[in-house]
Amino acid sequence: MKAIPFKICTCCSKPWKTLDDFLSEPELELAGYQVNFEDLKGGLFYFSHLSKDCGTTLAIPVQKFTGLSNRTILAPHGKCPGGCPEFCLRKESLDPCPVECECVWVREIMQVILNWKKTAA
């Protein structure tokens, strides 16, 4: 039985067999995050495929990355402590969040992705 790859590029059809292969790819860059307050694991991470033959943006549900954080989901949005910078509302913002709210675990996952060691090109 043939294993289903973690992701196949929707433009150039390059496959990445595993999450590790995907995150180690030097031609992929985390480009953004779109929150889904109804289903936080259904939010989307956006990755730019920076190969010279491609250049597309890939959207992948947060659900596929939840194993990168042990943090639990906290209080629902709107019940955040004061001073929330609302990073989760800005797709291009990849900064870690200083506030403990329901989206802080996604911000933690983004930092893991951003700091993932890339393989040599």
**How large is the radius of gyration?**
15 Å
Helices and strands, in N-to-C order?
EEHEEEH
Class by helix and strand content? alpha+beta
Number of domains: 1
Low-confidence stretches: none
Biggest sheet, spatial arrangement of strands? 3-4-5
Q: Hey, roughly how much beta strand do the residues contain?
A: 15-25%
Number of H- or I-type helical stretches: 2
Mean pLDDT value: 85
* Total number of strands: 5
- What is the makeup of the main sheet? 3 strands, antiparallel
* Helix content, binned percent: 10-25%
Helix and strand topology:
Blueprint: E1 7-8, E2 15-16, H1 19-24, E3 28-34, E4 44-49, E5 57-61, H2 104-114
Antiparallel strand pairs: 1-2, 3-4, 4-5
What's this entry about, in short?
The chain has 121 residues and is an alpha+beta fold. The protein has one domain.
